[in-house]
Amino acid sequence: MITYALWFAATCFSVALLLNVWRIGVAPGVVDRILALDTMVVNAIALLNIYGLLEGTAVYFEVSLLIAMFGFVSTVAYCRFILRGNIIE
Amino acid sequence: MLGRILNRLFPHPQLTAFLVLIWLLLVNKVTPGNVLLGLILGIAIPGITQPFWPNRPSFRRPLRIASYLLIVIWDICLANITVARVVLFRPNRKIRSHWIVVPLDLNSPEAITVLAGTITMTPGTVTAMLSADATCLLVHCLDAADPDAVRDEIKHRYERRLKEIFE
Amino acid sequence: MELLAQIVISALLVIAGIFGFLGSYGLLKLDDTMRRLHAPTKATTIGVGGVLIAAMIYFAVFQDKISLHELLITVFLFITAPITANFVAKAHLHRDVKPSELPPTGGKYGWAAYDSVSPDKQPIDTD
């Protein structure tokens, strides 16, 4: 039962990632692209954890923690660049 | 004398405790060595960063904080169902989006930050901006029949509780 | 016990998958940047939170490893999601929206991205 649920969730998040790629491609503005990239990071974390569950290992959690941190910092850096013209003042 | 030394060692006692906890969660094993290493970090980091935050934020009434957290978690679950319903079943032209201005009674920066975060995570609202003199918040509401009711709910449900916690 | 855990984990995974998908679908379907901001901040965050909680229960029940890592990631995502949303909203308002399109603050000063009390002062000064 868990395997089916895992494959279902993996399909959902994969389709979500594809939708994000589409949004990045045809976004109406640069802010939407940032939003899509941020969503992509979060979806990638979910997909990675589902893969970890399928394999039955817990090694992917460190990876997802790092991805979460980099995703957050890069989104803030993009937005700050748009807001202020530079990142570190 | 002892008080002064303790004060020197732990400028932010809550931060120290929090750092030890986070370290133990990160290494995922509770051993005396890890607790010691966490304690060293918990003393070193507040010591180094002390110039950045000279005054201690005051947290009182842990029970109220817990009840606030439970309310917020419950509201996050409701928020998702609300947003999912709007995304799935409402055609775009029928979505009634509004800007709402929420006047603030809170003064401390921590309280305003927590309120802004709460508003973003709860049903159909996102905090967009603070006014230049920090007296009101600009909130975007995804779908509401009555914007004033949303504003009153924010003030009544979250701000009143935060005022009790922080002030 | 095992069966109950299986049901709970499966339900969490299915719900998380649906919400994760809805977050990205909303990003495409809604028609205004501020509206689009609502979908990923809420739905995607709860989606990934659901997956992580399911993983935590799975490892605790089936492999007897109690690990709280997942909780750490979940809490991190829940704390950073409002900050990201706020930054994206500010960037959008800064780039694409004029101050006259927003409601007035009702006070002496305007919104923080367009106005300031004095040039070198932040909206909230801690001193």
Describe what this molecule looks like in 3D:
Chain A is mainly α and 89 residues long. Helix content of chain A is 84%, strand content 0%. Chain A is built from three helices and no strands. In chain A, helix 2 (30-55) packs antiparallel against helix 3. Chain A is flat, with a radius of gyration of 15 Å. Chain B has six helices and three strands. The longest helix of chain B is centred in the middle third of the chain and has 28 residues, at 62-89. With 127 residues, chain C is mainly α. Chain C is built from three helices and no strands. Chain C is elongated, with a radius of gyration of 21 Å. Chains in contact: A-C, B-C. At the B-C interface, helix 2, helix 4, strand 1, helix 5 and strand 2 of B face helix 1, helix 2 and helix 3 of C.
Keywords:
heterotrimer; A: 84% helix; C: 127 residues; mainly alpha
Short description:
The complex is a heterotrimer of chains A (89), B (167) and C (127). Chain A has 89 residues and is mainly α.
Low-confidence stretches of chain B: none
Total number of distinct structural domains of chain A: 1
Helix percent band of chain A:
over 70%
Strand content of chain A: under 5%
Count of helical regions of chain A: 3
Q: Could you describe the largest sheet of chain A, including whether it forms a barrel?
A: none
Topology of this structure?
The complex is a heterotrimer of chains A (about 90), B (about 170) and C (about 130).
Chain A: H1 2-25, H2 30-55, H3 60-84
Helix pairs in contact in A: 1-2, 2-3
Chain B: H1 2-9, H2 13-27, H3 32-49, H4 62-89, E1 98-103, H5 109-121, E2 125-130, E3 136-141, H6 147-166
Antiparallel strand pairs in B: 1-3, 2-3
Helix pairs in contact in B: 2-3, 4-6, 5-6
Chain C: H1 2-29, H2 33-62, H3 69-96
Helix pairs in contact in C: 1-2, 2-3
